[in-house]
Amino acid sequence: MNLWLRQLKKDIPADLHTPVELARFELGSALPGLKTELRVQASMGDAYRIDPLDDGSFLLTGGSTGLLYAAYRLITDRLCGQEITRPVSSSPKYALRMINCWDNADGEIERGYAGRSLFFRNGRLDYDADRIRTLGRLLASAGLNVLCINNVNVHYPAQLLLEDYLPDLAALADLFRPFGVKLMVSVDFSQPMRHGVATADPLDPAVRAWWQDTAKRVYAAVPDLAGFLVKADSEGRPGPFTYGRNHADGANMLAEALRPFGGVVVWRCFVYNCRQDWRDTKTDRPKAAWEHYAFLDGAFSDNVILQVKHGPFDFQVREPLSPLLLGMKKTKLAMELQLAQEYTGHQIDLYTMIPMWKELYEELPADNIMSIAAVSNLGDDENYTGHPLAAVNLYTFGLLAWDPDVDMTAAVTRWCRLTYELDPLQEQTLVELLLSSRRTYEKYTAPLGIGWMVTPHDHYGPNPSGYEYDLWGTYHKADRNAVGIDRTHEGTGYLDQYPQYFRDKYGDPASCPDLFLLFYHRLPYTFRMRDGRTLIQRIYDDHFEGLEETRAMADKLSSIVFPEPDASVIRERMDKQLYNAREWCDIINTFFHRLSGIPDEHGRTIYD
User: Fold this and answer.
1) Is 314 annotated in the active site?
2) Where does the pLDDT of residue 162 fall: very low under 50, low under 70, confident under 90, or very high at 90 and above?
3) Are 347 and 393 in contact (CB under 8 A)?
4) Which one from 103, 201, 233, 342 is the annotated catalytic residue?
5) Catalytic residue among 103, 201, 233, 314
6) Would you call 235 a catalytic residue per the annotation?
7) Which CATH class is domain 97-412?
8) How far is Cα 345 from Cα 336, in angstroms, rounded to an integer?
9) CA 247, CA 255: separation in Å to the nearest integer?
10) Confidence grade of residue 454 (pLDDT, cut at 50, 70, 90)
11) What is the CA radius of gyration of the chain?
12) Whether residue 11 lies in the annotated active site
């Protein structure tokens, strides 16, 4: 299996209960000939320092979890052939570095592409303890420290907060605790109404009392629970709007219940009109988050974190940075990414995400967000992530959550070296393939930031107008003359939500980066790009190039000697990607050719 710590041969004993105990075990089993001293300095928390000493030994100093992170740093450096020869100090950028699992109690996973749940079966927590320890080891070695185990779309039976089920939750928390991983649970905002309360109005005393009693009961079972994750008033979920309240009212009510126990409320900002009439040209879905939250800046309790999707749509192949991440200066924010490849290939097509994340950080001021979260790509497949190479996204997310300045080539190289024993040429080939895979996928899918040309509901494969007349507000408005949405001041006004420097960069088609052109502008097919090509020719060229790059990727992958069973899975998924890339190329090019009537300048095959 493709675990980046596969070289740690010894299973983790069940009688280790603290990160310091685990750190000693991992060092002793992975580096048995190396003398190390661990010095606990509680005030350091997750931070650590590694000092090489003159006698060849190492002094590790840190908080309890910091020592565990130091141990994994020392181990993984050694496994990568790197030596620590001078003092190293490290501390994480974000205190909360979280994975959001969308697992349901019946064992299904919403948008899951790696099997079924690692945590649930038949309406209860039911898991393999050894696999949970392995998962804990993986998360800790990548620097991740919070795991929300259930779906934000809370489906019943969902009994994690009930007294009869709390022992099961406590037992799972016990398994993760030595790895410094705290659990979080998603809650249903209307849950009091399932337990005898007549309303879920956040200002109702009975509702507040119910949540306070529930929090007291939950924290008695799991004292270090990180808190609650909430999706409210979104896609049919209940929330404060039902009662004429705003989201600060709802989040602060839950924050009050969690405050005595040190818990936080992570409140998702994915709120928009999902019953939009396609004839409505005024409503623009990307504007929704700003309209719902920006005016509440400063109104949230200090133990509330607003979790904002990195883009204003929904994890498309390319989206601009959400304006909320730039504009809410008085509120604690978490940026939400998606490891699950919902719109980026279902963990079938190769899609390495760190190039996208690094682009986001180029737009993000240094101190605008306090926490970071990612939707899980985990499941109970033998390799945990479905496609063996999709594990690079989980690992590099951990490195980025610790240090957003991490070099993406170094991060991907480190994952390759820890995961596979390849010769230098094969390793270089794999690193280059992984780093180029995002751009290749983008070339053969939806063009130039337009998004949403996927098969409805499933979201795998092309359907250019699949969402064009639906209720979800995801339109490209392509006709015989033009394509794209005008989101400037003269159009929907979406761009007005950004600071002036951002408007200046993206507001003029002549200066807007090519890959965002159709997100911000409606343009004729004859629009002349800066490189001299017409818009329609750029669309054709990108799709043919994406298909050819995928074919070259398949050839290069076949030259790399992967161990079984990874090799078989990689071959099988590459065959599916080749088919998918051809479908995208032919269908998108044909779609635009039929609309525009403009032929490909190079005479390549486009179907009438």
Assistant:
1) yes
2) confident
3) no
4) 342
5) 314
6) yes
7) alpha beta
8) 19
9) 12
10) very high
11) 25
12) no
